[in-house]
Amino acid sequence: MAKHTVSIDEDTRQRIHTLPRGINFSAFMRKAINIFVEELEKNPDLEPENFIITCTARKDTSDKKRR
């Protein structure tokens, strides 16, 4: 599997580190990246300006491990 890394600016890095401990940042990013890739597969001509990130009221438990 190929890995792709991108540097982030210091301000964003500091903001991520100050998030409350209960927030699973990697789960949020994994979901966002999956949706982003799906949309690019449908339409590869999209640009960053075409994306708007919003939150919804529903609780999505698809990324949680089942007990």
Describe the structure.
The chain has 67 residues and is mostly helical. The protein has helices spanning 10-17, 25-42. The longest helix is centred in the middle third of the chain and has 18 residues, at 25-42. It is globular, with a radius of gyration of 14 Å. The two termini are 28 Å apart.
Briefly say what this structure is.
This protein has 67 residues and is an all-alpha fold. The chain has two helices and no strands.
Low-confidence segments, ≥5 residues, pLDDT <50?
Answer: none
Determine the oligomeric state from the structure.
single chain
H/E topology pattern? HH
Structural class: mainly alpha
Beta-strand portion reads under 5%
Q: How would you state the average pLDDT, rounded? A: 84
Radius of gyration: 14 Å
User: What is the molecular shape?
Assistant: globular
By DSSP, the count of extended strands is 0
Please report the distance between the alpha carbons of the first and last residues. 28 Å
Largest sheet: none
Number of helices: 2
Helix content: 25-40%
Task: Provide the fold topology.
Blueprint: H1 10-17, H2 25-42
Which tags fit this structure?
67 residues, mainly alpha, 39% helix, globular
